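Quick question, first post here. What does this chain look like in 3D?
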Amino acid sequence: MAAPRPKQLCFTLLLLLLVSIQLCSQLALSHSLVKFLPGFQGPLPFELETGYVGVDESEDVQIFYYFVKSETKPRQDPLILWLTGGPCCSSFSGLIYEIGPLYFKEVRYNGSLPTLELNSNSWTKMANIIFVDLPVGTGFSYARTSRAAPSFDLQLCDQAHHFLRKWLNAHPEYISNPLYVGGDSYSGITVPIVAQVISNGNEGGTEQFNINLKGYILGNPLTFPDEDNYRIQFSHGMGLISDELYECTGTLNQAHILEINCGLDYSPKPLKLFNGRRSLDERFQELHTHKTSPLSAFYCRVDGYWLSYHWMNDESVREALHVRKGSKGTWIRCNQGLPYESVILDSRPYHVNLSRKGYRSLIYSGDHDMLVPFPSTQAWIRHLNYSIVDEWRPWNVHGQIAGYTRTYSNQMTFATVKGGGHTAPEFKPEECYAMFKRWISYEPL
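> Answer (accepted):
Ran it through. Tokens below.
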């Protein structure tokens, strides 16, 4: 066989190089439109995009996201980068259970693919939202090497910033949109840091473009180490216990004190959940042997969470979402088995820094949440020591009190959501949509 000629060899090497560059480019950032989803009848009546953005050294961290375009004026409406708490809970939770355009139909699981229906109170009616799976390993995000798998708070925040810049670079039509960083629960630690990292990047003068950061949004946010002490105050104030009997609250549903206690779906480690040869269906039946409530298709609220496991682990769903084959095993809503380290225990200094720079913020709390009770949120806001510009008052929806609110001189609005739990939009979607719509439009609640 004749040896290849020099010109042929050069052409072959050039072709391989171009293919390699193309593959690396696709790995660094890929996105696809999703027009149909299994379980939803007909084409989606909103624009959904999913994809990956590679960050960190050698793009070894591949961050998965869901982008839902605003249904009003996407080129003008705010852009929200949404981080679900946990830590290590998939942002799909925020999309499907809280503020996104879809819900699972509330029917008990019967072995078929769960059904999706529209959420009439989706925040995407007037905002573009990027739901991001962070930290690495959460949801469909993954690490290409074992070295890239472990992460911690500050690293997560840097990765969120790099993700956003790369995403905007690929979607330049949104660079000038007002940007807000949002999240709930544990994201009370990370969201203020991400906002500060974005702000610092703008001020550094080394970035290709400035991000139009306007502020941040936090629901039921974990914030500082003394949070637990306020559970006693909350429990006593609600007439649940005397201070001496605080340990008795262990039998309550801490996410919403009026609902029955079936435990939270903060999933156990994968080896404990999917051990041996037991399938997801078998484990599901073992964990959920309750009878149907006469008032609801679900005996427990967590029954609704488990529908996401059956839906997200269906091969047709993964194909529709353009999930890379072989990149992840079983999808887990809140994966507490990830090598993630919480190193920041107090995010109040970041609120102070952001306040000094003039960024606005919305902090809201479901008033029946005992995981992060509203008195603790009131306390750390009070500790910031900003003057009150709009004193404590009720805010209404349809002429009824939906909660109470107060506004401070640092452009921070605090609101309680009456009857809301952890987190508020899941329990009171209409009220939370009204709250968000007014605040994002610079209107009083």
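The first strand starts at residue 29 and ends at 34.
The radius of gyration is 23 Å.
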